[in-house]
Amino acid sequence: MASLRTLYAADGNPPELRTNMNVDFVINYKIPSEATVEAEAGFTQLIQALTKAGLASEVRRGVDHTSVLVFVKVASEKYLKSRIYRERVQDWLYGVRIKTPEKDVDKIFEQEPIVDAERLRLVYLLLTNPKNEGGAGITPKTGQWKYVESIFPLHNHAFNRKWIKQWSSKYVLNEEDVDQIRNQFGEKVAFYFAFLQSYFSFLVFPAAFGFASWLILGQYSWLYALVNSLWSVVFFEYWKKKELDLAVQWGVRGVSRIQLPRTAFQWDHEDADPVTGEAVKVYSTKKRLQTQLLQVPFAFICLLILGALYLFCFSVEIFIGEIYNGPFKSYLTFLPTIILTGLVPTLSTILGNLAEQLTEAENYETHDAHDAALTQKIFVVNFITSYTPYSFTAEKISSSEELTTQNFQINPDRLRTQVIYFTVTAQIVNFALEAVVPILKRKVFKKVKEVQTEFAHKNEKGDVVPADAPEEAAFLARVRNEAELDVYDVATDYREMVVQFGYLSLFSAIWPLAPVSFLINNWVELRSDAMKIAISSKRPIPWRADSIGPWLNALGFLSWFGSLVSSAIVFMFSGDSNGPGGEPSSITGWALLLTVLCAEHLYLAVQFAVRYGLNQMHSPGMHKERAERFQMRRNILAETMDNDVETKPLPDIPTGEKITRAALEEEARQASIRGHGTPEEAFWQRQQGMDETISIGRSLISKMAAANKTAKA
Amino acid sequence: MASLRTLYAADGNPPELRTNMNVDFVINYKIPSEATVEAEAGFTQLIQALTKAGLASEVRRGVDHTSVLVFVKVASEKYLKSRIYRERVQDWLYGVRIKTPEKDVDKIFEQEPIVDAERLRLVYLLLTNPKNEGGAGITPKTGQWKYVESIFPLHNHAFNRKWIKQWSSKYVLNEEDVDQIRNQFGEKVAFYFAFLQSYFSFLVFPAAFGFASWLILGQYSWLYALVNSLWSVVFFEYWKKKELDLAVQWGVRGVSRIQLPRTAFQWDHEDADPVTGEAVKVYSTKKRLQTQLLQVPFAFICLLILGALYLFCFSVEIFIGEIYNGPFKSYLTFLPTIILTGLVPTLSTILGNLAEQLTEAENYETHDAHDAALTQKIFVVNFITSYTPYSFTAEKISSSEELTTQNFQINPDRLRTQVIYFTVTAQIVNFALEAVVPILKRKVFKKVKEVQTEFAHKNEKGDVVPADAPEEAAFLARVRNEAELDVYDVATDYREMVVQFGYLSLFSAIWPLAPVSFLINNWVELRSDAMKIAISSKRPIPWRADSIGPWLNALGFLSWFGSLVSSAIVFMFSGDSNGPGGEPSSITGWALLLTVLCAEHLYLAVQFAVRYGLNQMHSPGMHKERAERFQMRRNILAETMDNDVETKPLPDIPTGEKITRAALEEEARQASIRGHGTPEEAFWQRQQGMDETISIGRSLISKMAAANKTAKA
């Protein structure tokens, strides 16, 4: 991959990066040497399934001698258009689009051309949708398709080069930049960048304020904690609004209502849907609930393992710092940090995998439900790994409080050291893990493979596998390269940012420079994440989304929890060493609880006010939606009102229906038929038409006035 | 009105109650003796406006010699139908109806006949809508129409008789009963009865549990408070779901999105809407905000006035109970109760009027915004009048705590006495005020008027105002009777129930029999409210609604606040007299805060769980909506897919497009034009069609397998 990096940097533009050969997707099909026959049969089925779904295919040699690459494109552009048209109509039916789709198909695509993301998504659905929905029904790595290693679109390197170049030379990203990502990688990825950019812009304020606080107010400042908490409310509420706005602008608002079934879902039995009559796959809710209950022991295990680890490190730290006096003391003090730095990410990964397996076992019907459940678990893991150390430190302070005054004084500093570690060191370590390690890893693997292949070639007499055609060789080498890249998972990036937001909202009162560090980190993060997608990941499947999804709840929770934690921290440590610590513990407890209670309710009140205030503000997305809705209503209403209903009250008889000649004659006829008519008819025939009603009314009024006058006289 | 009551009871069915003479609405038009000429001119304009809006009118003598009654019906049934059709289409456009309206108007009304409520609502809109929207633009009591005293529909006495008879002979009401109300009086009133019925049914549980608690656990029981709080959560969440369900069943879900402009709204200037281009009436947000800020002094005034009153009564109570030893002591102890009973309702009414004026001054554009603002203020008034007395009592206990042990012991009992007063006595007083006083008031007024009229008649020589026609006399007498009835305001009834719910959630731990009293009260309330509408009120305008509106927030707030207050009460008084009160106050404060904090968060957690649980449950309304949505989608999708787009991937070429002869020829032609074709074309021409791809792939696979085998050997 280093080659790509060099190419981008050197402004090279070799032909193999200039074209994707009209390939929509590449299927990496494994040929394990122990099951060649089975794999061969599966390959035949694969090509047949693709063809039946309307996809053209080409086959080439794979990454090494253990796979083939199947190149896929849509056979008929017209058919793809019909699928896209159908999806747009479906969007409209689900209320995602407001404008009624034109009946003229060509006009639709003229008004709103197909972007790359839309095309690739539709082709991917053609590949993976079940056969009864017109797809090829391919489910990578499972069942019939267990040898399908991966399905991925090819990077558009022309775009990627421009993108990376642009972003590395500009300080502030705007909406257009995010729109570009959306057209290329879909809304799900675009939402991440939009969120990160908003968060980054918002960070400028706490960074500036934090820096000023650090200079003027010092640590554990009431004012800083308060302003920081208010900021987190404003940011959270702002983002909720912004998110909605973007969804409307991108035409994906409410797209989460259109659920994509998970192919990995396993059902107990099929049942007829009471509403639609279609067969529905049913999985027992009780069984799922039982699996879901495993989350409780899961959370406890997380807490236990990580708690034990932290406790151990603390013990080591105290032992070395305060009891141990042997050799290498100055080096040994780093031991706990090294242990933590080494073990926490590993443990997080293990627990993350466990969370994934647990979610898999919960067996959700749809992608969204699955993602939400997984996100929730990952959030719990991260919450525990990231934030428990602080509770230990705080605990330790509380318990050691009464031992010696000197001991109490050093503790807030330890808390600060920890925050600095987690906000600066950990971010750098994380960056290294994320950006550098995968490249190294790939290099090593590549070397190993090369040696293996060389060894294989040495042993055989002549190459039996035909070589690539020279005009394709460079292109195929590039595709083989992309096939070996990691899959980009946007959840990892969200997780990192949400954890960071949590630090900011929970602990930044301890060290007000934290937001400054985050600001710098996120500037780099924005660019390194772009690099990660462009250079060290397969091109992501361009999924749609109308929000950052379950992470929104995590942000809201952290913002609220921050009001509790930061107020408690400030209360406990804000005074000088003889402050609250000097008074009896019962009073402190009382006041601490009162502080937390007040802070929480102040938080809720502010949230209410900010929400109300933001709702009053102008929103371009909502404006657009309103305009479209109005247009649609006017059109349809105009159309419907062409019917044979009377739309004017009485077009030709301004003085009332009753006095037209025809009406009079009709009445007379009716009356003659039924004798004197019903009492109702008699009632309404007393005054014939408007003028008579007026004259009788006026005479009544004047008579009444006269009577009243007489009465008064 | 007693006459109606007797008639209903005696099973009399006189002809004047049998027919409404096809009258849709009656306008009571005042003729003040000091402005006869002006009133006469206004009358002429009235009849003209009615006629122009497509309404037929008849005029008769009014209630006495100071008004005329204008009877209104729609002149053309066809025109009314077109208005109703138009409204149904509008509902569909706003997403209120899911089913696409039929193009055939007659079919629509066959499928879904017009009910009374719909008809009357549409006619009322014809009467009151501005002229540019096709209405007559009548705004009672204001501006041009200041002599229009009231506009009201006539009661359907046949229905009312059946209704009252049914309800007084059955214990439990079902959905059909509420549906009947909906068809007759509209969704807004029906929602009240549905709510009251649900609340009544739910009350059975706390009543039974409360009775058991009272017998076994005594007052201030932890268990009772906990169960009661859980119950309030369950009820609140249940109602939210039920409400949505009813809205779907009644086809009014989302109807609050269709806003009715307030005719009383006064605008600063007109402006073009940026979206629709239509003229919009604009009122300065800043000016409104300034008026809204008056709410703060308003709330303080309420608190001050009522606080002073309560303080006074307490002082009197203590003076009489503990210091005064003069004559009539046993009678004088009732003095505070009498003062409170007499003054609180009066003060509430005054403050309620003040709230109405304040809301009027805030000058909202729409009815919903106006109602929400008014409800909020009324809730504040009621919150203060209803619940502050307890804080005084609790306060007094806290302050007197340290004086004497004997004093402390009697205090919980005083609190209980107060709860009993407010839950039993006040309910009875309220019932009397609501049901008995209006009847008495009307009787007295009637007598006075009769005497006046008699006196007037005596003075004049012969009646100059023509008498009623004998066949109409009874009917007109009945209408005059109805014209003098009060306007039914559903907000008053909601207020009463919300305040009651507040007692239950806040204070019922003090006296667990409270829910029993409420259960009995609400059984009567359901019937007496029905009687109030049927007998002592004008028939209400059948407005639509999709919820109980702002009262829902009030319920939610009280339920949450109840978790705080009841936990605090139980904590303070649950121990025996030497319990928490005996320990140092700082510990008590600490523990009290912890209790409240825990209770609140337990409450929030339970709410979350209950909400989740209820969401999993089946809902008939949602089921119906889903079915309709599915049907609509299927229809439209089938319609749209008739277009000329290709819907099958490749109907006739199952083995891929590329190997048909035509395709081959075309390719050859293309290639000959451009020499050897583009690299992309060359790439896709390497394997011609599915079969070739398969055979080449298979050969690749077997060669690779062979190579691997050689390598291994």
The number of helical runs of chain A is: 25
Compute the CA-based radius of gyration of chain A. 35 Å
Low-confidence stretches of chain A: 400-410, 576-585, 651-659
Oligomeric form: homodimer
Largest interface (CB < 8 Å): A-B, 123 and 124 residues
Number of strands of chain A: 6
- Helix/strand/pairing class of chain A, anyone? mainly alpha
Give the rounded overall mean pLDDT of chain A.
80
How far apart the termini of chain A lie comes to 110 Å
Helical percent range of chain A?
A: 55-70%
Strand order of the largest sheet of chain A: 2-3-1-4
User: Roughly what fraction of the amino acids of chain A lie in strands?
Assistant: under 5%
Q: What profile does the largest beta sheet of chain A have?
A: 4 strands, antiparallel
Shape of chain A: globular
Main location (chains A, B): membrane
Keywords (chains A, B): Membrane, Transmembrane, Transmembrane helix
Pfam families (chains A, B): Anoctamin (PF04547), Anoctamin_N (PF20877)
InterPro entries (chains A, B): Anoctamin, Anoctamin_N_fung, Anoctamin_TM
